[in-house]
Amino acid sequence: MRQKIVAGNWKMNKNAGQTQELITELLQNLPQTEAKVIIAPTFVNLAQAVNQTKGTAIEVVAQNMHQAEGGAFTGEISADMLTNIGIKTVILGHSERRAYFHETDALLANKVDTALKHEMKVIFCFGEELKDRQDKQHFNVVEYQLKDALFHLGEDAWKNIILAYEPVWAIGTGETASPEQAQEMHKFIRETILERYGNDVAENVSILYGGSVKPDNAKEIFSQADVDGGLIGGASLKADDFVGIINGI
Ligand code: PEP
After folding, report:
1. What structural domains does the chain harbor?
2. Residue having the nearest C-alpha atom to atom 2 of ligand 1
């Protein structure tokens, strides 16, 4: 059985006090669920969030990391720094990292390798832009993002990979892919993995959907056969909304 996951990407939101407050509210209201619940606060608040959630059902993960082991990379954070404070998972390839920080699939392949070397799990984000979909290139774009960043991996590495399909046109826009559009792409992604790695890897990899998921559309999206949960941006910043989305699993 594939793992169901609901992950909240807090992006550059919530200072230390607000981080503590939101985690307290989430812990008080977390429903019984088969899903793994993940939150990704900003770097400076990770250590306190790890401490606050110790022994609870919430896993705290990082939003990014650098590919190098260490050295002269001002402002960056290494895998060792993350694992040393108890972080076991990192989000890589978010569309905002790709758009504003020029992260390419070649660079992301390096980041993935570094994370796996440090025995971290990776939530790998990818997805087409609006123009790609209008040009009917969305399947091509998604296929090459996957291949260029992940298909150098051996079969064994895939137990530590979680995929997050996030059409860029649906992120933070209020525009959601329809459940049918999400399912169509998730099925394509699973088939692409099946062709390269076989049934075991394809059937066991969790594929999350991200893009304007809200409490009122979560259930329908999560009920699609190849959708194993969601990566949530805006709606993960309020406990009520995030809990509502978790209840959609
Ligand atoms: C995201 O940034 O990963 C995301 C899905 O954002 P939102 O839910 O706000 O569209």
Report:
1. 5-246 (3.20.20.70)
2. 233
